[in-house]
Structures are given as C-alpha cells and as structure tokens.
Amino acid sequence: MTDAPQQDNSTYALVKRLVRESVRPYLAWIAFALVCMACVAGATAISALLMKPVINDVFVARTESLLIPIALAVIVTFAMKGIANYGQSVLMSFVGQRIITDTQHRLYAHLSTMELGFFHRMPTGNLISRFTIDINMMRAAVSNALTGIGKDFLTLIFLVGVMFQQDWVLASIAFIIFPIAILPIARLGRRIRKVTVNTQEELGQFTTLLEQTFQGARVVKAYGMEDYEKKRVQEIAERVFALVFKSSRIRSMASPIMETLGGVAVALVIFYGGSRVINQSMDPGSFFAFITALLLAYEPMKRLANLNASLQEGLAGAQRLFVLLDMKPEIQEKLAARPMVIAGGGLEMENVHFSYLPDQPAIDGISLSVPAGKLVALVGPSGAGKSTILNLIPRFYDVNAGRITIDETDVRDVTFDSLRGCIALVSQEITLFDDTVRANIAYGRPGASEDEIIAAAKYAAAHDFIMDMPNGYDTYVGERGTKVSGGQRQRLAIARAMLKNAPILLLDEATSALDTESERHVQAALKKLMKGRTTLVIAHRLSTVMDADLIHVIDDGKLSESGTHAELLAKNGIYARLYQLQFSDQQMAKQARLQAAGE
Ligand code: ATP
Fold first, then answer.
1. Which of 163, 239, 321, 525 lies at a 20 to 30 A Cα distance from 592?
2. Whose CA is nearest to atom 1 of ligand 1?
C-alpha cells in the first residue's frame, strides 16, 4: 500500500469531490426534489400571505362571503405543501440511500484490490466502521445539505420576500440581526468536524477491541482476563462518550445564539410594527402576515444554522472514506500481464530478498527450486522465513529483489487470476465461512457440480463425517454454525483444495496435535491431494519430511541446506539436529501413548 496523496481537507474541496463522485449520478432526482422543495417553500409563503385577508377582511371588515374561499385556499395550500413535502422526502431518501449503497460497493471493490499486508496492518474494526458509521454520516450530510439548501433556504427566501413585500423597513430591522450569528456558528462547525474525526477513530478502535475480545473469548476466560478487558472496554467507551458529548455540546451552542437573536428580532418587530399599527400607518393584516412569515422563517433559519454542524460531521466521514479510496495497492497487476500457462508447474526462486519492515530482512537472498510434480519440503526453526516463502509465490507480497518463476515465467508478469488459479493453498489457519458445508467446499471452485463436491469430500475423507452432520452437505458451519473439530476442519480445507484441482499446491502443515485416528485420515487425504502436483510444504511431520523428493532447510532468512532426507542426515548439519529433536519428541509421545494404552 502506498500512502494516499496529501488530501485537501477544506470544506470546499471535500464538498466538490463529494458532488463529483457521489451526487452527480442523481442530479435528475435531485432536480425533481428541488422542484418539490420549491413548492413547499411557495406554499409556506402563501400560508403567511393568507393571514392578511384573514385579519383585514374576516376579523376587521367582517366580510362573510370571504369565509369559504379563504378556508378553501388554506386547505389547498396546506395539501399542496404536504404533497410536495412527501415528494421531496421520498426523493431525497432515495438519493441518500443510493449514495450509501454506491459508496459501499465502491469501497469494497477498492479494498478487494488491496494487498494482504494492508488487511494485516489495518484494524478490522476500523475498516468496518467506515462502511457503517462514516458512510451514514456522509449520507446525512448530503441529504441535510440538499434539504437545507432546497427546502429551508427557498422557504426562507420566499418568506423574506413576503416580509419585504409587506413592509421593507420592518423586514430590514428583522434581518439586520442575523448576519451577526454567522461568524460564531461557522466556528462551531469547524470544531465539530475536528471532534467528529477523533470520535470516528475511537469508534473504530472500539469495534476492533470488541471484535478481538469476543473472538478471543476462550483466551480471555482461560487467562481470567475478564476484568482487564472490561476495564479496556470501559475506558474506550468513556472516551467515546466524552467526545460525543463534546460534539453535541458544541452543536447545542448554536441554539442559545439563535433563540436570543430570534427573540430580539421578534421584539423589535412587535415594538416598531405595533407602534405603526397603533398610529395607523400599517394595517393589522399586513402586520400579521409579516409576523407569521417571521415566525415561519424561524424554524428553517434554525435548521440552516445547524446545517453547518451536520455538514462538517458528514465531511469528517467523507474525509476518512476518501483516505481509504485514495490508497493505491502496493501490489498491482502489470498492464501487459498475460495469463499464466502451466506446463509442469516447476517453481524457482532466484536470489530472492524480502522484508516486511525496512532493514529487517525476512528472506535474505534465497535461491531454490521446486521441480515440477515433486514434493518439496521446507523445514527450519520458527521465524526462519518459511511462511514468508509461501506468501511470496501467489504474490501476497512482492519480492524486493530477485524473482520467482513458475515454468520460467516471472509471477509478476501474469494476471492475478491465472496465477492464483493455478495454486491451491492449504494453511494452518483454516477459514470456514458462515455457510453450508457444500458452499465451503465449493469455495475452491464456484459452480462445481454436486457430484464434484461429493467426490472431493470423499477424496479428503470428509464425506462420512459430513453425512453424519444434522443436514449433511446443507449443514451450516463457520462461526455461527455447527462446530467442526480440528481434524475435520483440515479435511474440509483439503476437499476445497482438491476441488480447485490446481497444479501447484502450497501447504502449511498444521502443528496442532490431532488424535491418531484423525491424523491418519488427514495424512491419507493429504497424500491423495499431493499426488501429481508440484507441492511445496512447510513440513512439521516426520513422515512428510521423509517422503519428500527434496528438502530445503531455511535458517534466518537464508537457505542453509538442500537435499533428500538421507543426504541431509549424512551432512550432520541443522537438518540432522532438527530431525533428532523431532524424532526424540515423537518417540517420547509414542511411548507415552503406549504406556497410557497399557494402563
Ligand atoms: P514459523 O515456523 O514459526 O511459522 P516461519 O519460518 O514461517 O516461522 P515467517 O512467518 O516466514 O517464519 O517469519 C519470518 C520473519 O518475518 C520473522 O522474523 C517474523 O517475525 C517476520 N514476519 C512475519 N510476518 C510478518 C509481518 N506480517 N510483518 C512483519 N514481520 C513479519
């Protein structure tokens, strides 16, 4: 992942980008919504204007013939306002929800191009909260801004029009007050954005922590760390509380400013307008139309004053989303990448260097080969770099120097699809998705037929235990499904790889001990899986090591020895030492088993 280019976080730049990337496809819908909002604004202005004949003709002049027409006009005006309001709110919620969904698609599609290292670096909770909280805030900002600008702003303009038409001096008095409010309210908006960005960061950490503690509930309980975790969760929840409270306090500060100014404006209007009605230079109808317009203008004006706050909150969300969207994947397919053509599937590493972190080489100039169709084992102490080698072949990471080839083609010259398509990976940590057994096996080849899935399961010695499950192949496994044992998990993973039927197999043997029966099943399944494929295995089992056509011993990021089991034993080097250690461990385990059986 390369860092995003420096982002312009000014309100103008963020709004411009939001409009360009998210709002533009919906301009026609928004135009319709704006027409509806203009109707709401017009109807609101008319309802204020209606006060004039109500007061002058009905209450003062007592003209009975006008009662029905005025009542009808009121009904029509309010019905028009209601219908237009319905139209604008349906259209705006459509646009708002579409923006959420489109952005979720776009973000997920972008994230799926990121290299594996990105997902290791980025806390999961942080990523999830961008999909939920940030996107929602962005939607709220867009629809509030549009409704604010459309409905409230237009309503305000129309009502101000009514006021000026009734009495321009009075209108000037009422409105001279409000520009005073603009400066402090803009400052509140900026503070809110800052607090919101911090709140989002904390919420991301909160989600990550919750996820970790729930997933690791076993470890938490085993080590009696409930209180420790409770304290950590409490601390972060308190920090979120403080930030959210701070933001709502800042937001509420707009209210006393607007209420006080509103009161001053109304008082001035009553004082000046009232004295003009008293000395008969203004008729009471005009005064009431004016004061109705002023009171009706008050709500939209308050909402407009708050608009900046919610806009800034949404921009904080957009800002965080844009950072993710602007990150470029470090590992990319070449423009001229071609599909990989497999002849035998022979692998070569040529003077490969790689480090996860600068100046800490994990692979330090390794050259080794995995001949086509052979079983090659990687052995070596923990942390030597064996898993790293496996990660470099499907380009989960790219080499820093040197090259890796498959059938003499550099893995960086071919498409991701074809490269990963010709490799089956069975790792120690087996992921079963929250889905049926069938879907979990078919993950190896979506679209595989029922017969193929069952054949793969039979090969992997998984068919029998699957049939014993409550719903056979339709049984749900994974986090919320039926639990499967360690050995069964491995056999499902083998079935998945079997179905994929890739010419190259990368295998990280599980270290966790299985009981003898399971072990035998898994071993038999693995043997079948390896047959006829180029297999590179991180070997932990003696049987695998001894069966291997070639063994590479990795030590501290370097290749220290290569050869067959017999050759390496004869060398009496690292391998011979590792072998002796494992061998005596196994002997001891065997003895213990025999003893237990004897008792
Ligand atoms: P083991 O047998 O214990 O799994 P290994 O031989 O497979 O060990 P690797 O996992 O390849 O060893 O690790 C090689 C080196 O790279 C180690 O020093 C390890 O700490 C480091 N390393 C591995 N993964 C990462 C990572 N994602 N980020 C940074 N360093 C890493």
1. 525
2. 382
Q: Determine the residue of 386, 425, 506 to mutate for testing ligand 1's pocket, defined as the one with the most ligand atoms within 8 A of the Cβ atom.
A: 386
Please report the DSSP string for 362-421 in residue order: EEEEEEEEE-TT-EEEEE-STTSSHHHHHHHTTTSS--SEEEEEETTEEGGGB-HHHHHH
- CB of 110 closer than 8 Å to CB of 130: no
The residue with greater pLDDT, 526 or 512, is: 526
Q: Measuring from each residue's beta carbon to the nearest atom of ligand 1, which residues come in under 6 Å?
A: 120, 356-357, 362, 380, 382-388
- Structure token digits, residue 408: 């003499």
Residue nearest to atom 23 of ligand 1 (CA): 388
The yes-or-no verdict on residue 320 having pLDDT over 70 is yes
Q: Tell me the C-alpha distance between 265 and 297, whole Å.
A: 12
pTM value is 0.78
- Quick one: pLDDT band at residue 587, thresholds 50, 70, 90? low
CA of 409 to the centre of ligand 1 (A): 26
Percent of the chain having pLDDT more than 90?
A: 35
Mutation test of ligand 1: which of 115, 355, 387 has the most ligand atoms closer than 8 Å to its C-beta? 387
392 neighbors 419 (Cβ within 8 angstroms): no
